[in-house]
Design goal:
Distance between the termini: 35 Å
Oligomer: single chain
Number of helices: 0
Mean pLDDT: 80
Strand content: over 45%
Largest sheet: 4 strands, antiparallel
Shape: elongated
Helix content: under 10%
Strand order of the largest sheet: 3-4-5-6
Radius of gyration: 27 Å
Low-confidence stretches: 274-278, 553-589
Length: 598
């Protein structure tokens, strides 16, 4: 979705109805955006007169197209993703090369600002319509105008319009009527009826051209293009529907209104997929002794007995969904971060709010606490890592770099590592906040990262379904474990001998760090939306219940040790490791299960 007020594009998970990421780069409001059919490329246009090309995996702008002298009001890509076309309030339509951002041609002829544009399925023609009520067809190879026709006999000035997929026809309308024309001939195909006393504000065509969506003052109409009959009216908005679209699978409809609400609908049942009143578990964490489990459900943090599931306390001071939580190693407090751009510190004894840490300008995605419990590190969608004094609640350092998904603090407290959507791990010096270096090797976003207890290894998990081991001093990739699903949480044993991982398919696996050999792998709970590991206890949180599993015969206890002198990887020297204590895997069993409701 493109945002005029925030100058940003937001990426959403349509199944969970959760914000994935915000793309910042335009200087002014975003008026249009479209996604390539063949790659993870996004194109956006803005009031700042530019178009930007983004990669969805890294959430980075890779190219800026400059050439318009007015606001970019519409944009589209060819089916093969090679070409892009844009329209502007400067009355021109421009053709661009997607790979380089080079301007290939500028089509002139409209006498008013451009309302919509499109490229034919074969990539040989460009179509445009304007507030001058004309529809024009241009030849890509020569730039000459092939056809022009007016909509004036039916529509004086179009309020909305859309081209079908492949640009075979155009649908446009005003306050009184909605019409469909054949683009090749200019012939009027159909006039659609209107809902009494309701104005149409937006129009869209499904990707397979089987359905036309009309956004009205309170509803979304669905028209069958074979019979041109109204087949469904989706009711539920409290304000005008100013934009709407349908998924390529035709499985759901998305609509947006003037009051900044986006709703996702089942087109047959008309029920929003993001069911109002039901919140999903977004994160969970165990206390140091594993006696209690922290479960974030929407804006509320629930504190529960791990074994019985008894609700002890609910913390509701966040004003938006909680996305991350962490417990101090000394067990005295815990910290949460979320979509309200704040972190909150709570007393573990009284469960009362101690302080609020403000500074992030976008969602806080991760937070961790140093071994000595003196430092809080947080990362978010505002492309920063922030380092806080845990006692005073003051901001020590801000490290600008990338959109952060996970982070970890070295045992000596001297440096941190962060992982994000750009597929990189980045190392930072804690005292100065300086960037130390980057580790490159993953092919998709980072999902989790930890640092070995002796600081000799960084372990990272990614959506590319791999776990990688790194040397933080030399930045060398030491080894890789190829997995069958996405690792979401991991922890090393106190002697750095074992690695315990939880995966997105609700499985748990234990590996020998030295050899990467899998000791065991077990499928557990399904489905789940959050997981955590501590002291050899693995917790999976699903929509309605929590299940915990315990590993016996291994020690994963979080040790609280005095803080040593701060060291960065660049200054660290090899240190003798204490002999590994011989350990044998005993058993892995379900520890407890309890329902969240009630």
């Amino acid at each position: 979705t493109g945002g005029f007020k925030e100058n940003a594009i937001k990426l959403w998970d349509p199944v969970r109805a959760r914000l994935i990421h915000s793309l910042h780069g335009h200087a002014l409001g975003v008026l249009c955006c479209c996604v390539s059919r063949t790659s993870d490329i996004l194109l956006s246009g803005s009031v700042d007169k530019t178009l930007k090309v983004w990669t969805l995996k890294s959430a980075n702008a890779v190219c800026t197209m400059v050439g318009h002298s007015g606001s970019v009001t519409c944009c589209a890509m060819s089916l093969d993703g090679r070409l892009a076309v844009s329209g502007s309030s400067d009355k021109t339509v421009k053709l661009w090369e997607m790979s380089t951002g080079k301007l290939l041609n500028s089509f002139q002829g409209h006498t008013e600002g451009i309302l919509a544009c499109s490229i034919s399925a074969d990539g040989k023609r460009v179509f445009s319509t304007s507030y001058d009520s004309s529809v024009r067809t241009w030849e890509v190879s020569t730039g000459r105008e092939l056809l022009s026709f007016d909509m004036c006999s039916h529509i004086r000035i179009p309020d909305y319009c859309s081209f079908s997929d492949g640009s075979n026809w155009i649908i446009a309308g005003d306050a009184n009527v909605t019409c469909i024309w054949d683009v090749a001939s200019g012939e009027l195909i159909r006039m659609l009826g209107q809902v009494p006393n309701e104005k149409v504000f937006s129009i869209a065509v499904s990707p397979d051209s089987s359905t036309v969506l009309c956004g009205t003052e309170h509803h979304v109409q669905l028209w069958d293009t074979r019979s041109w009959k109204l087949v469904e009216t989706i009711r539920g908005h409290a304000d005008a529907v100013i934009c709407c679209t349908m998924a390529s699978t035709n499985k759901f409809v998305v609509s947006g209104t003037r009051d900044d609400v986006i709703k996702i609908w089942d087109p047959s049942g008309q029920i929003p997929l993001d069911k109002e009143g039901e919140s999903e578990v977004t994160c969970c964490e165990l206390t140091v002794d594993c006696q209690r489990t922290l479960v974030a459900v929407g804006e509320t943090l629930q504190v529960r007995e791990t074994v019985t599931g008894q609700l002890i306390h609910s913390c509701s001071d966040h004003t938006a969904t909680i996305l991350c939580c962490a417990v101090s190693p000394d067990g005295r407090w815990y910290v949460t971060g979320g979509e309200d751009c704040t972190l909150k510190v709570w007393s573990a004894m009284t469960n009362q709010l101690l302080m609020t840490l403000s500074g992030h300008t976008d969602h806080v995605k991760c937070c961790v606490v140093s071994v000595d419990s003196l430092t809080i590190v947080s990362g978010g969608n505002d492309n920063t890592i922030r380092i806080w004094d845990a006692d005073m609640g003051t901001l020590r350092q801000t490290c600008p770099g990338h959109a952060v998904e996970c982070c970890a603090v070295a045992p000596n407290g001297g440096w941190i590592v962060s992982g994000g959507y750009d597929n990189f791990l980045r190392l930072w010096d804690v005292p100065s906040g300086d960037f130390i270096g980057a580790l490159q090797g993953h092919q998709d976003k980072l999902t989790c990262t930890i640092i070995a207890r002796d600081g000799s290894k960084i372990i990272s998990g990614s959506s590319d379904k791999s776990i990688k081991f790194w040397d933080p001093v030399s930045a060398d990739l030491l080894s890789t474990i190829e997995c069958t699903s996405e690792p979401v949480r991991c922890q090393v044993s106190t002697d750095d001998k074992w690695l315990l991982c939880a995966f997105s398919d609700c499985s748990v696996a234990c590996y020998v760090v030295a050899t990467n050999e899998a000791i065991f792998s077990l499928k557990t709970y399904n489905p789940f939306s959050a997981a955590c590991i501590k002291n050899a206890c693995v917790v999976f949180c699903g929509p309605e219940s929590v299940e915990s599993y315990e590993v016996f015969g291994m020690t994963f206890m979080e040790a609280h040790t005095p803080r040593p002198e701060c060291e960065s990887p660049s200054a660290a020297s090899a240190k003798a490791r204490s002999p590994n204590r011989r350990m044998s895997f005993s058993t892995f069993r379900r520890h407890s299960s309890f329902a969240l409701k009630g």
